[in-house]
Amino acid sequence: MSKDYIPTNPAEFDGFYKKLTQYVSQKAAEWGHIPQADLDGFLEGYIPWYTRYAVTLKPYTKEDNREMRRAMKTATSNIREFVNRFLRYRPVTDHDRDFMGIPNRKTSKTAHIEVHEQVDYVIQIKGMRKIHVEFWVKGSTHKAKPDSYDGAVIKWGLLEQPPAVHKDLRTGHAMASRTPHTLEFEENERGKTIYVALAWQNSRGKTGSWSDIKSTVIP
Description:
Elements: H1 10-31, H2 36-44, H3 46-55, H4 62-87, H5 94-100, E1 119-125, E2 130-137, E3 149-158, E4 172-176, E5 181-184, E6 193-202, E7 214-217
Antiparallel strand pairs: 1-2, 2-5, 3-4, 3-6, 6-7
Helix pairs in contact: 1-3, 3-4
């Protein structure tokens, strides 16, 4: 896509951002895959943007405009990260993305229909309450994701005992479009054991087989 789907005109950006947050707020419970902390952070992110933008709706200074542009840059980055983590794959539908103004991925005639690749990965501690998941195609010597794939789906569970099956990993779910992917946790989750599994997802929304489940303790 040659044109960015996120507007750069402040008024258009505000309309896009507001519509996006309203729709996500309405649909989040139905979708059920967005962790509450990530959802709250995204929705609350609209406030600092609008605070700076509202100043420019009346006579304003060059400094007001610079602050508004800084807020827009931060908000744009936050929107892009949230969309790529949570809105590019099921249960979000093509219809949902059309309504939100997020372009759907086009698939070519040669695009993968079935996902045969498997994920291999390592879990690394990267600071307080942060874990990096570094992943690649199992058996590969490089870490690029397969052509035309959205990335790797990561799901995890904070459990007292090792899960018997992958379905037991119900705490969190994210799409990682690049490696490594950082998982962040709350203070009250420190010291708990996290169990993780990954699977590749192609541009058609099809997911491959799940990896082995690995674990570590949240620092």
